[in-house]
Each structure stands twice: as structure tokens, then as C-alpha cells.
Specification:
- By secondary structure, this protein is of the alpha+beta class.
- Helix content is about 35%, strand content about 30%.
- The chain has two domains: about 230 residues, 3-Layer(bba) Sandwich (FAD/NAD(P)-binding domain); about 120 residues, 2-Layer Sandwich (D-Amino Acid Oxidase, Chain A, domain 2), CATH 3.30.9.10.
- The chain starts with a strand and ends in a 5-residue tail after the last helix.
- The structure holds arabino-flavin-adenine dinucleotide and P-hydroxybenzoic acid (PHB).
- The site of P-hydroxybenzoic acid has 9 residues, from loops.
Length: about 400
């Protein structure tokens, strides 16, 4: 088979790119290693920036999001037993965020792709991308035990952090930057109504905690835990008790989370990573295939969306005018946003988490920074504008 754009990976990046290209009349084919059920149930992000929301709406993939998603106008910071609200519209030019789980966005995009898009092949593990001089690219993949080849004019690696497409970029041309953090997140889904209206990011001397949500009846909560933590060591009561300790408020000693059955429990390591450049000849990288951020800034999914919005515009320019200007600028255009998100995610992570090696002095610096954000419209605007994301120019 041959297609114009071969897309490896059916996560948010690959699926949104396929949708945007379909709407621009550009043919593509998506190859996904796992089965549909696995991809749709993988618990990950929960916050969509305006840029992502706009792309879903304009590509005809936002109908259920607008029906079931929850618009949030701010977040709450808790530290030193106190609570401060960061108001998005007032501090970030009227912009907000949408609470709509990545699982739901992926389901919506898969349904549309299967109904009206180009080929989307599940259980098709890409083995390698070969780029013979002057000939079309060839993507070798295994499907139902047989090796097959897809030839393409372009290949986009949307295959995540452990993907293979990045290996097609000569190692001598690749630059990688990374940082591992000395802690992880224990994430839970619970059939328990969120007793808070907006997300709560909590700094405490016992470690970080985050209260998010999936609906009026389902809570999504996270606890900072040591690297290598086994979720089995955290029975439900221990999780609820620890969360209540970390969200404790001086002025409201009775503040408690509503409890309910925990339906999912997993440990997520924290990592920052960037691979540059995001393009080599006719091979491009998008989303986690090129960059990873710790989820403290709710950036991962939204960076993936921003990459493919930029890339779809570039392929559209090529199709309509023959110009490769936007394609030639793709990597630099995306990396400017990527590094802004890397810095913000690092800032949120190191300001809110208790590094096991940090001193009492470091903790006081964290508290001073948080107090500055709470007291200064300028400092809180900087957080708000980074959190809601900057428009793609
Ligand atoms: P993805 O990893 O989502 O998708 C890549 C796809 O490529 C996968 O379906 C994979 O099966 C497929 N693939 C890989 N190799 C292949 C091959 N050789 N052949 C074919 N297919 C192949 N971000 C947030 O903002 N907030 C969060 O709370 C949050 N939580 C997270 C929790 C976890 C456990 C993880 C791992 C990430 C989390 N993230 C979070 C980040 C996450 O949302 C990513 O940013 C987002 O999934 C990126 O989307 P993609 O780039 O499409 O990559
Ligand atoms: C989530 O709802 O899963 C979520 C929200 C905000 C974050 C990370 C995760 O910063």
C-alpha cells in the first residue's frame, strides 16, 4: 500500500493528525501496535487547553466534548494549610481549560477515523522506517503475524516515548535533553463525587497531592510517592487518609474528600525529555515521540495536539501551494512551545513536590514562591497564562 502521510501511533497525536489531514483532503494511514480496547482505556491526561479544544471543534470532533466536558475557570493552590484560587479569565486574557479525559478524546477520534477517515490499522507494530535515496519511505510493520510494508511520501512518528520512528533519525543528528525526578505519582480513579469545583494542587510537608476529576461522580486523584512504589502497598484507606492529610486546611479542619470505590490505581514516573530536531528529511516526530513533561503542568496531551496542528497546517500549505516553508519551520516552531512547556512543567513540579534530598531551606524557598504567586497579580498571571497555554501563532 502507499499513502501520502504514514502515521505511526494512534494516541492523541496520531489520531488528531489523521483527523486534521482528512479534513484538509490529504490522505494518510495510521498504524497502531495495540488493540482498540487497550488504546481507548489507557488512563492519562484530563485537561485540554483552548488550542486543543478549538482543534477538536473545528475538525468536527468536539461534539461529545462540548456535551460532557466541564469548562474550568481556575485552579486552587494549597500550601502551608492555606488555599488560593488562580483565576484564569482575569489573569489569562479570558482563556479557560476544559476537563475532558484523554480516553474520551481518543474514543471520539477513533470513531470518526473508522467512520470517515483513512485506514486505521490496530495490532500493527511498526518495526522500522527505511528511507532509500530518492524512493518513497517504507514502513515495515507486523500485522497478524505477517510482515508488511507501507510506502509513504512522509512518515510522522506519533509513537510515544518508547516509539521506534525516532530511530530513523541518524543518531549523530539527534540531540536529547532529559531529567528524571526523584519521585513518582500514584494515580487513582474513584467512584466518588469531587467535593471541590476546580482542580486542587497541594504542597505539603508530606509531599504533593492533586485533586482532579472526570465527571460529577468520578474523581481523579494523585499522590506523590517514592520512585519504585508498588500500588499494592497502598490499600484504599491508606490512600484516602494520606490525601486528606495533604489537602488539610488550617481554617477548615473538617475538610475531607468524599470517598468511594477506587476503580483504577497506577504509578507514573516523572520525567522531562526532549529530542531535537523534530524532523529529518521526510520523517517528522510529534507528541511524546519527541518530548515528555511531568504531568504537573497538564501539558503532555496539549503539546501533542499543538505539534500536529502546526504539522497539519504545513502539509496543507504544501498541498495547496507546493511550498515547504511551514514544513521547513516545523521543528523550530514546535520546539519553542515545547521548551516553554518543559520549563513550566519543571517549575510546577519542583515548586510543589517534596524532593527527598531537599533541605528545610529549600522548603522555605518553595513556600516563599507559592506565597509570591498568591500575593502578586503578576506572578499568578504568569502561572495562569502558562497553564491555559499560549495561542499557536
Ligand atoms: P501516546 O503515548 O499517547 O501514543 C503513542 C501510541 O503509539 C500508542 O498508542 C502506542 O501503542 C503506539 N506505538 C508505540 N510504538 C509503536 C510501534 N512501534 N508501532 C505502532 N504503534 C506504536 N499528560 C497530561 O497532560 N496529564 C496527565 O495526567 C498525564 N498522565 C499520564 C499518565 C501516563 C501513565 C503516561 C504514560 C502519560 C501521561 N500524560 C499525561 C502524558 C500523556 O497524556 C501524553 O502526553 C499523551 O498520551 C501524548 O500523546 P501521543 O504523543 O499520541 O503519545
Ligand atoms: C488529570 O485530570 O488527569 C490531570 C489534571 C491536571 C494535571 C495532571 C493530570 O496537571
Amino acid at each position: 500500500m502507499h499513502t501520502t502521510v504514514g502515521i505511526v501511533g494512534a494516541g492523541p497525536a496520531g489520531l488528531l493528525l489523521a483527523r486534521l489531514l482528512h479534513r484538509a483532503g490529504i490522505d494518510s494511514m495510521v498504524l497502531e501496535a495495540r488493540d482498540r480496547e487497550y488504546v481507548e482505556q489507557r488512563q492519562r491526561a484530563g485537561i485540554l487547553e483552548q488550542v486543543t479544544v478549538d482543534a477538536l471543534r473545528s475538525s468536527g470532533a468536539g461534539e461529545r466534548m462540548d456535551r460532557e466536558g466541564i469548562v474550568h475557570h481556575g485552579i486552587e493552590l494549597r500550601f502551608d494549610g492555606r488555599s488560593y484560587r488562580i483565576d484564569f479569565p482575569g489573569l489569562a486574557d479570558g482563556r479557560n481549560v476544559m476537563v475532558y479525559a484523554q480516553t474520551e478524546m481518543v474514543k471520539d477520534l477513533i470513531a470518526l477515523q473508522l467512520a470517515e477517515g483513512g485506514p486505521l490499522v490496530f495490532e500493527a507494530e511498526v518495526l522500522a522506517v527505511d528511507q532509500p535515496d530518492g524512493a518513497p519511505l517504507s514502513v515495515r510493520y507486523r500485522h497478524h503475524g505477517r510482515e508488511q510494508v507501507l510506502t509513504c511520501d512522509w512518515v510522522v512518528g506519533c509513537d510515544g516515548f518508547h516509539g521506534v520512528v525516532k530511530n530513523a533519525i541518524p543518531e549523530g543528528l539527534r540531540r536529547t535533553y532529559e531529567r528524571e525526578y526523584p519521585y513518582s505519582w500514584l494515580g487513582i480513579l474513584a467512584d466518588a463525587p469531587p467535593v471541590y469545583d476546580e482542580l486542587i494542587y497541594a504542597h505539603s510537608d508530606r509531599g504533593f497531592a492533586l485533586a482532579s476529576m472526570r465527571s460529577a461522580t468520578v474523581s481523579r486523584l494523585y499522590l506523590q510517592v517514592p520512585n519504585g512504589t508498588d500500588p499494592a502497598d497502598w490499600p484504599d484507606d491508606r490512600i484516602w487518609d494520606e490525601l486528606d492529610r495533604r489537602f488539610a486546611l488550617r481554617g477548615d479542619p473538617g475538610w475531607r474528600l468524599a470517598r468511594g470505590p477506587i476503580t483504577a490505581k497506577s504509578v507514573l514516573p516523572m520525567r522531562s525529555h526532549v529530542t531535537e530536531p523534530m524532523r529529518h528529511d521526510r520523517i517528522l516526530l510529534a507528541g511524546d515521540a519527541a518530548h515528555i513533561v511531568p504531568p504537573t503542568g497538564a501539558k503532555g496531551l496539549n503539546l501533542a495536539a499543538a505539534d500536529v496542528i502546526v504539522l497539519a497546517r504545513a502539509f496543507t500549505q504544501l498541498r495547496q501551494t507546493g511550498s515547504t516553508d511551514l514544513l521547513d519551520a516545523y521543528s523550530d516552531t514546535c520546539l519553542e512551545r515545547v521548551w516553554r512547556a518543559e520549563h513550566f512543567s519543571h517549575f510546577m513540579t519542583t515548586t510543589l513536590h517534596a524532593d527527598p534530598a531537599q533541605s528545610a531551606f529549600d522548603t522555605r524557598l518553595q513556600l516563599s514562591q507559592l506565597a509570591r504567586i498568591a500575593a502578586s497579580p503578576h506572578a499568578s498571571a504568569e502561572l495562569a497564562q502558562n497553564y491555559v497555554g499560549v495561542p499557536i501563532v
